[in-house]
Amino acid sequence: MNEQTETQTETRYTxxxxxxxxxxxxxxxxxxxKMNINMLLAESGEKALALLAKHSVQVVVSDMKMPHMSxxxxxxxVASLYPDTxxxxxxxxxxxxxxxxxxxxxxxxxxxQKPWDNQELIRTLEEGLERVRLKDENTRLQKLxxxxxxxxxxxxxxxxxxxxxxxxxxxxxxxxxxxxxxALEQVLFNVISINPDIDGKFAIEVSDLSAFIAQKAGLDPxxxxxxxxxxxxxxxxxxxxKACDFTPPFSALNYEQQKKFLSQTQQAATILTPAEHMKxxxxxLALQFEHWNGSGLYNKVAKxxxxxxxxxxxxxxxxxxxxxxxxDKTMTPAEAKQELKKHRNTRYDGEFxxxxxxxxxxxxxxxxxxxxxxxxxxxxxxxxxxxxxxxxILILPEDHVFTESTIAKLVQFxxxxxxxxxxxxxxxxxxxxxxxxxxxxE
Length: 442
Known about the structure:
The protein is an alpha/beta fold. The protein has three domains: 3-143, Response regulator (Rossmann fold, 3-Layer(aba) Sandwich); 197-368, Hypothetical protein af1432; 371-426, Molybdopterin biosynthesis moea protein, domain 2, CATH 3.90.105. 50% of the residues lie in helices and 8% in strands. The protein is built from 15 helices and nine strands. Strands 2-1-3-4-5 form a five-stranded parallel β-sheet, with helices on both faces. A two-stranded antiparallel sheet has the order 6-9. The two termini are 88 Å apart.
């Protein structure tokens, strides 16, 4: 039987009547025959206790004056053994004092005087039964509440497990997406690196320098990550150009070639259009040749140029100056910084540029190949590090300026197939900073 059916079905309660006079018991039975109750009759306190031990009794009505055990004594035991019963005593006027005492002690709930009024008796019993019903309902509701709380706890437990499971699934899905995105990013860089006309190591230098400037500027880690990657594929658009339009120094290109060189930004944006998640990176690439003062390709003012594009312009051109990609001469780090400084707050964002200019640790490339074999040397090149033979004997010291004679000796030494030098040279120095070539990078 479900809870709703139990609630709708009226419970039939039991009332115990105790009196040593059988006529009184029969009179009570006649007076209450219409009430929907089970009636038990006992002629003494002892018989009443025996019936209570066998049956579930909700109301006890006892005569006050009985031999061997008075009604007060019986109801006192009932209160102790069955505290939830409703206890009524029938008393005469002579027993009023003891009755009032029993009421005050809490052993009796109500008393009725003999001879009783049937309607008053019925109302008293209904009051007692209603009290019992309320207690039973309260007990039922408490039990139901505990049951529902347990079910709710179980449901919450299942829900929590489901949430944990779904969260784990979402995290795994996001990790797969992130892994796929990283794979795509690596693929793009690999496509650049595998092209013989595009130097992947140059891209790494630009990426590292851009990240350095962004970190010095205190940008958000997520923004730094985008800037680092955009700088890594800064020459991505060159894949759509002919080698002759981007491999020579910019100053050596004619007007049409320079236009094609600068069109790499649009090439990159077009290629990356399908990859919506890469739009922030695409925007950096598309605007990397914009000038800080709004005089670039599309006349974008500084507030419209994302920080990543402004930083990329600085780090890109620094390494272009150092490696001879702007003019047909390589520069020292100091000279490259001097060239950038000439265009502070016109071509380059002054705040970002100052972070590079004040960074003494930014110098020669870490990834691009600065080493040559003896046959690649030309007079005038400067040795960057001490040069030793196989026996670790110093052959030439750092800062040695190569001559035809020293080059010839090294070439002769390398004629042995098992002997090869790894010679690191310094970038070619522009002879005079006062006569440095004014260049146009875009």
